[in-house]
Amino acid sequence: MDNIVILTGAGISAESGVPTFRGPDGLWEGHRVEDVATPEAFDRDPVLVQRFYDARRAALATVAPNAAHRALARLDAAWPGDLLIVTQNVDDLHERGGAKRLLHMHGELRRALCTGCGAAPAWDGDLSGDPPCPRCRQPRLRPDIVWFGEMPYHMDAIEAAIAGCDLFVSIGTSGAVYPAANFVRWAEASGAATLELNLEPSAGTPLFDSARHGPASLLVPALVAELLAG
Ligand code: NAD
């Protein structure tokens, strides 16, 4: 076992107090996804969308990495082979937990994106009120979040890592959002072993070689201990 790719989703941050995407009520923080997470929603009601992400960004100050984030950072630091953590999460808990080999495929709350000049500055304040872009000075900043219908980031690097991996692990993701939901198929095609860790069986469970169900804060440290023990 040399090379590992780990895909994480909202479930790994749930025990830190970050709500998952589709709770039992089918809403994300009380909003329909179509009203806050599409380019059309931003065109229709930019004030609502900016306020929604401003609230999510501000809430990051009230949460902390949990044992699952910290365990993945330990694995990242100690694993001698290639390793890549691909997160669908827009929170910053992996990096605050210490992970280094990390890609945010759906963007980051703590970054803005200028629709004028394309700059993507680090951003910790609000975007409501249309502050100017630090580069072009135009008031055209949006959250640097990949919305439904937009192209995820880093796809070339992710495809290459999956093509070369021996183990693919999916943690805390429902398998409902594409293209991430297809990564297990790519991994299988490249001959990798595939393992799902999730609170409960997901839509993707039958696609994995094996699955373990329970809270990420227990399952992930246990897996990391196994991997590091060889
Ligand atoms: P999802 O909400 O669709 O699925 C979360 C999965 O995690 C579910 O299968 C659930 O059973 C599982 N889960 C819940 N608690 C868990 C726990 N304690 N341990 C292990 N598993 C647990 O999330 P998704 O598949 O990541 O897709 C959601 C999309 O929403 C992503 O694109 C992401 O950008 C966005 N999102 C991100 C965050 C975040 O950054 N933390 C939060 C909400 C939504």
Question: Helices and strands in order, then pairings?
Answer:
Layout (H helix, E strand, L loop, with lengths): L3 E5 L2 H4 L18 H4 L2 H6 L1 H14 L7 H12 L4 E5 L5 H5 L4 E3 L2 E8 L26 E5 L9 H9 L3 E5 L11 H7 L3 E6 L11 E4 L2 H14 L1
Parallel strand pairs: 1-2, 1-6, 2-3, 6-7, 7-8
Antiparallel strand pairs: 4-5
Q: Can you offer a commentary on this structure?
A:
The chain is built from 9 helices and 8 strands. It is an alpha/beta fold. Strands 3-2-1-6-7-8 form a 6-stranded parallel β-sheet, sandwiched between helices. Helix 8 links the parallel strand 6 and strand 7. The chain is globular. The termini are close together. The structure holds nicotinamide-adenine-dinucleotide. Nicotinamide-adenine-dinucleotide binds next to helix 1.
